[in-house]
Automatic annotation (TrEMBL):
Gene3D superfamilies: Homeodomain-like
Keyword entries, A-Z: DNA-binding, Transcription, Transcription regulation
Extent of the signal sequence: none
One Pfam match: AraC_binding
Name of this protein: AraC family transcriptional regulator
HTH araC/xylS-type domain: residues covered: 176-274
PANTHER family: ARAC-FAMILY TRANSCRIPTIONAL REGULATOR (PTHR43280), HTH-TYPE TRANSCRIPTIONAL REGULATOR EXSA (PTHR43280:SF2)
Family annotation (SMART domains): HTH_ARAC
C-alpha cells in the first residue's frame, strides 16, 4: 500500500533481527530513503520502536510531548515512538530513516531529550549521515551485519551526546552573557527586550531558557540583583533611602520600599537599623 505523499523514487527496507540481537544489541526493524511531498504525514499514538531521521533536503514539523519542533535541512531527529507523536513534511523533503530498538535505546533517548529535545543540527557533523548511509547500504543489499549495525547506532548516539554537550556549553555562555549585561546595567531602566536583544534571542525563547538555567525569570534576577545591591549600600554607606533607590535602578522610592520589604520582610529603614545592631 502506497503512503500518501511518498514519491516514486523512495525506497524502504525490512529486516528480521535475530533473538541474540534483540537480547544484546541495538537492532533494526526497517529503514528507508524517502522523497516526500507536503502531503506526507505520520501520526501515531504508539509504535514500539525508536526512530532516527536525517533531513537531507527540505523541512519537517515534529510534534512530541506538547512541543513543536522544526527540522530543516541537515538536521537529525531522534524520536521515541512508544509515545504519541506526529511528523509531517512542510515542503518537498528528502530524508533517510531507520526504526530500531534494543540495548539502552530508552535510556539514551530520555537522557538526550532532557538535555536537547529531539532535533539536532548536523551543520558541522558529517559522521552521523555517513553512519546512517552505511546502515541503509547494508539494508539495501540485504547484507546486514547485526553487530556492525549495533555499533553504528551506538556511534550515532555517541555523536548526538557530543552535540548536546556543545549546545549546553553554548547555552551556558549565552546565559552568562545575559547575566553580565544585567549586572552592568541594573541601574538603568532595562527591559526583557533589551537583555534578549543583547544576546540575540527572541524575548520569549530567551525568558524560557534563562528560567531553565537559573530558576529565575530575567525580571526576577534583575530585581534580586537590585535588592542585594541596596542591602550593601544600606550597610556600607550613609546614602539616604531615596538615593539608594535610584542608585539601584528603582524609578521611584515607593516601588523600592515595597519591593525591598517583599524580599526581606523589612523596610529599607528597618533593615539598616537591624544591621547596625549586629
Amino acid at each position: 500500500m502506497e503512503e500518501l505523499g511518498v514519491l516514486s523514487d523512495s525506497k524502504s527496507f525490512f529486516h528480521t533481527s535475530s533473538c541474540f540481537a534483540k537480547k544484546a544489541l541495538y537492532y533494526l526493524t526497517n529503514a528507508g530513503s524517502y522523497i516526500c511531498s507536503d502531503l506526507y504525514q505520520t501520526k501515531r499514538d504508539r509504535f514500539e520502536q525508536f526512530l532516527f531521521m536525517y533531513i537531507k533536503k527540505g523541512k519537517m514539523e515534529i510534534h512530541y510531548k506538547n512541543h513543536k519542533y522544526i527540522a530543516n535541512e541537515k538536521t537529525f531527529v531522534f524520536l521515541d515512538c512508544y509515545n504519541p507523536h506526529l511528523y509531517k513534511v512542510l515542503e518537498e523533503t528528502n530524508f533517510n530513516w531507520i526504526h530500531f530498538d534494543g540495548n539502552s535505546s530508552r535510556a539514551y533517548f530520555d537522557y538526550l531529550f532532557q538535555k536537547h529535545g529531539c532535533v539536532f543540527s548536523l551543520e558541522n557533523y558529517r559522521d552521523i549521515p555517513d553512519f546512517l548511509d552505511r546502515i541503509l547500504s547494508m539494508m539495501e543489499t540485504d547484507k546486514v551485519d547485526e553487530h556492525r549495525i549495533s555499533i553504528l547506532i551506538h556511534r550515532i548516539l555517541y555523536e548526538l551526546e557530543k552535540i548536546s554537550n556543545e549546545a549546553d556549553h553554548s547555552l551556558e555562555e549565552t546565559i552568562k552573557n545575559a547575566i553580565s549585561y544585567i549586572e552592568s546595567h541594573y541601574k538603568e531602566d532595562i527591559t526583557l527586550n533589551d537583555i534578549a536583544n543583547h544576546v540575540k534571542i527572541s524575548p520569549f525563547h530567551f525568558s524560557r531558557l534563562f528560567k531553565k538555567q537559573t530558576n529565575y525569570t530575567p525580571h526576577q534576577y534583575l530585581i534580586n540583583y537590585r535588592v542585594n545591591n541596596a542591602k550593601k549600600l544600606l550597610f556600607s554607606s550613609n546614602l539616604s533611602i531615596n538615593e539608594i533607590a535610584f542608585k539601584c535602578g528603582f524609578n521611584n522610592v515607593s516601588h523600592f520600599v515595597t519591593t525591598f520589604k517583599g524580599h526581606t520582610n523589612f523596610s529599607p529603614k528597618k533593615y539598616r537599623e537591624f544591621l547596625l545592631k549586629i
